[in-house]
């Protein structure tokens, strides 16, 4: 995968007050071209600075190479400036929005008369190449005052708004690219021959020294956008692009994109007749067709079996609840924006239509936890019952903005494989260890096998619970994660206010990472909902609560597996496992006999008796990703045998029927995730 490169970590170097960082760096003789060219530096506080930065006091700086995540993001944001310069040159009068770096690229928002066409993007790319080649310098300039900035930007209404709003801009937002913390600054693009300013932009920086530090870029697409993401605001056009430290890195990324496009689960879902999103039901609310429902059911069944083996108790809970519950749990306080608005029921009216009894608010449930807590709390609990592991395939509804709804991976209604574990302090370490083992082992059952962990720890500005419990449980999570032997990536201050979290990230077949499972400690909800158990000494104690979702949601996991396997699910999950294809009609009964035997063993097997010719049938079922195609001709019938045809085009002829049935049956029952082929079958005969 393109993002995984070995980045050289440079030691820091000393810069005297009044000396430009770049000048001080010169004697280190670091590269200024190629994949590891130094594009900027990081100061002791972790802020990125231009190479032209002149510190007021002496200090230490670390070089940032082009192929590091931070280096790439500086290149990408600089490329966004070049794009904006090109747009204003090609489309005079265009007003500028914002232009941040984002994951794998950048965008810039513009107010233009007409949406950009694909041809426009080509024209812009050409103009950008010229700008890059001309080697314009990026020069930082401090505005004398906010008024001076406003005067200079009087024709840029969106920039003006940002200047006025500077104090309120979230430092983590895209807007902060322009007016982050600190001084109000502009970056001028200076022509190296004439020293004239060609273009400038309100920006906090930093930037690469010159446009020549953008070795490879491409504009990818344009789309409609709203100013500051709010649909009440002005309509803008957003142009997306990507930029990389080398042409090779760009090509590798484009290849990955093309592969991802081919595997897009929304497209495969349609081609393989798995699921759809009918307009009549609404955005983000999928229906699963028979083929998709089989896969989903197999996924759930296997998970259910494994959960039973591991000591989980199954519960079910309703989809709606009175507001009281979510007030008590705190969701209405901190999660209301993510919930659908309430349904009001049970109001009573008199003859004149005047309300005599007020109605009740009911909410669609966005999370299962409060309901599981009610089950825990339905009677007194003894320490002997702990750990208590309540599990549910619980369907929840979350109000996602329509702009972020994305197929099965970001839906408005979905089913979590959700468990809540209540345990004692003493049980916590053992419980977390087995939960993590269980998660990894179950994800591997589905054929994912490349994982790393992320540990989110306390945000010192926002947390509930004692420092002691945070420290101890973070230590435990850290130990459990380390003992798992998996790579551990820290996420400092990334925890929710109610407890630390481990998440399991899985890499798929084309190297993309997906956040899968989360194991979240919660010190808040047991307190709010007053959960207790009786300890061995007879005193009442609070249980520790662990939220744990393994797939995340079944729908999302379905989407991830669909893309991971590019539609060719392992045999045990495949909607159609075996299809008989007679060489001529006469041989159908022979195949019917075999598929009947297979069906008796619970295998999904049919014979294609349509009028299509054999070659056409093979093509259809190859496209339909049926893993076992059984062919039968005269010789097969005579020998009571059958011939295998596989998705990779290979074939194994004349397998005795009894052996064929056993082979297929074992492939399903053993849940072999590799596709059968001439080669993989030979290994089992
Ligand atoms: Zn900038
Ligand atoms: Zn929960």
UniProtKB/TrEMBL annotation:
Reaction(s) this enzyme catalyzes, per UniProt: tRNA(Thr) + L-threonine + ATP = L-threonyl-tRNA(Thr) + AMP + diphosphate + H(+)
Keywords: Aminoacyl-tRNA synthetase, ATP-binding, Cytoplasm, Ligase, Metal-binding, Nucleotide-binding, Protein biosynthesis, RNA-binding, tRNA-binding, Zinc
GO MF, any single term: tRNA binding
Segments traversing the membrane: none
SMART domains hit by this protein: tRNA_SAD
Domain Aminoacyl-transfer RNA synthetases class-II family profile intervals: 289-570
Cofactor: Zn(2+)
Binding site residues for Zn(2+): 369, 420, 547
Annotated cofactor note: Binds 1 zinc ion per subunit.
Record localization: Cytoplasm
Main location: cytoplasm
Pfam families reported in the protein's UniProt record: HGTP_anticodon (PF03129), tRNA-synt_2b (PF00587), tRNA_SAD (PF07973)
Biological processes, Gene Ontology terms: threonyl-tRNA aminoacylation
Superkingdom of the organism of origin: Bacteria
GO cellular component: cytoplasm
Enzyme class: ligase
Domain TGS, first and last residues per copy: 1-65
Similarity comment: Belongs to the class-II aminoacyl-tRNA synthetase family.
Alphabetized HAMAP family for the sequence: Thr_tRNA_synth
Subunit structure: Homodimer.
Protein name, UniProt field: Threonine--tRNA ligase
Source species: Corynebacterium testudinoris
Taxonomic classification: Bacteria, Bacillati, Actinomycetota, Actinomycetes, Mycobacteriales
Name of the gene encoding the protein in the UniProt record: thrS
